[in-house]
Amino acid sequence: MELYVLLIFMIFAAIIAIEIKDLFSSVIAVGAVGFALSLAFLILKSPDLAITQLVVELLCLIILIRATIRKDLPLVIEGRWIFNTISTLVFVAVFLFFAYTALKDLPAFGNPIMNVVKKYLEQGQAKTGAVNLATAVILDFRAYDALGEAALLFTAVIGIMAVLRSFDKDDKSEADDAE
Amino acid sequence: MPNNPLAGMSIIVKSITRIIISMVMVFGIYIVAHGHVSPGGGFAGGVIIALSFVLLMLAFGKGVATSKITKTIASNLESVGALMFLLIALSGFSGGAFFMNILAKGAPFKLFSAGTIPLYNYVLGLKVGVGLFAIYLAFVVLEKAGKRK
User: Fold this and answer.
1) Is B40 left (phi over 0), alpha (psi -120 to 50) or beta?
2) A164 touches chain B (CB under 8 A)
3) Nearest 5°: CA angle at A19, between A71 and A29?
């Protein structure tokens, strides 16, 4: 029940984030979606994901607010709105059709097929020694996942450093030492 | 909201930050170190540590935070974290396979247990913490460079 309230809240916040004119308010609405998602994870009994979602959402909000706060970014609303609306509707229809056909084969919500997970739940603690089974799965059974995640963050930092580097020589030296 | 975010905020924010920042950082380290016994782990704790540096920077201005960790040190530490993660994974070959948990498992519910899993957590925490702080620093430097032109 609480989950459906949260989901409806998230959908409304997302619509507000798209439709509102003020860029700053839009960022705040995006943050509302993220924090509601964190609460949803908590209701679904996944505190690991709830903590991660909360802190990542905080960092993203700070960066987004810093990026939007002092700039008068132009808001483009006029244009080919007939074409845009029709293409959006067609895309939504196609997406819903394929999602309906694909989701029919999935197990019902809250009743997963426990083929592999059963083994993790039974033997996870004895095999890894970790009490937190989420960490045991992430960093032992499925450690390639964590390796991929580490490589992804590494690539992201390299990319951002490369794109956002300062071209000015003296600006760079000024950025490196404490001014 | 001050006119120049790089210059820091008012005396109230600075005083509160002085009290709270050590708690935030210790909480991040706690989340990283107890990743295998309680919810959390390397990624979440690392983001909390990065957030403590971001708080330092927002409250006291750019100079205070970059006197602790410059952008170069942050990106270097990030690379060291990634390499150490790979090194721990490669050390599993001495037990027979990549990512093999070669260390002693220890007693459950203890801080020093679960073999290599806490080591992965520490390394991931270091990597994520300095990596995300480096991203934030890069955005701030970009804003400064754009303002000058």
Assistant:
1) left
2) yes
3) 70
Our separate counts of H helices and E strands in chain B read 5, 0
Closest-CA residue of chain A to B7: A179
Give yes or no for B49 touching A (CB within 8 A). Answer: no
pTM above 0.95, yes or no: no
Residue-wise pLDDT for A24-74, tens only, equals: 888 899 999 999 999 999 998 888 889 889 998 998 898 888 777 666 666
Residue B71 and residue A176: Cβ atoms within 8 Å?
yes
Provide the 8-state DSSP code for A73.
-
**pLDDT tens per residue, range B26-62:** 999 998 888 888 888 888 888 998 899 888 888 887 7
Collect all residues with Cβ–Cβ distance below 8 Å to B94 and sequence separation of at least 6: B102
CB within 8 Å of B140: residues ≥ 6 apart: A66, B6, B57, B62
Q: Give the distance from residue A81's alpha carbon to the nearest chain B alpha carbon, in angstroms.
A: 33
ipTM of the complex: 0.79
Cα distance from B19 to chain A (closest Cα, Å)? 20
